[in-house]
Give the backbone structure.
Amino acid sequence: MKKNQDESTIFGIFHRAAIPEGATAVHDFVLEKYLGKWYEIARLDYYWENKNLTNVFAEYSLREDGMVAVKNSGFDEKKEKWEESEGKAKFRGDNTLAAFDVSFFGPIYGGYNVVSVDDDYQYALVFGRNLDYIWLLSRTTEMPEHIKEKYLKIAQNIGYETDKLTWVSQDKNQ
């Protein structure tokens, strides 16, 4: 391997499969409208996330270098304390396409794709790089049933096993 190879080549596996087959990230995406706080309504648990977390939310802000700062917070029910993790995200291409590479572990990036968002940027459906990653997000601690149904149908059509979603309790304030 050449020493000057960039991260996208070195960690190409994360880039090749950056969005599930058949899924499309939102076009005409406006990052400034997406920034701010989002509550996790539902997710698929995955191996490096603490499965004991409730009251999960993410905060997105613009960094000086143009990347997006990502701060995830949640309440660990077993430890009875709040936990945080910080990362960064960058557009995978055109900054009007809601397709990002996100990293919480140094130079290793994974896909983060906003596949549906309402006109007011109050509700979002996010797919990861494959069918192991999905999030239903809301600006408030609740999501209307018709939005949930719409997002679940989109996910099912791509191949997600939505019956395995964890519905996140949002009953504590930080």
Remarks:
- Helices lie at 7-10, 12-16, 31-34, 145-158.
- Residues 1-16 have pLDDT under 50 and may be disordered.
- The two ends are 46 Å apart (CA to CA).
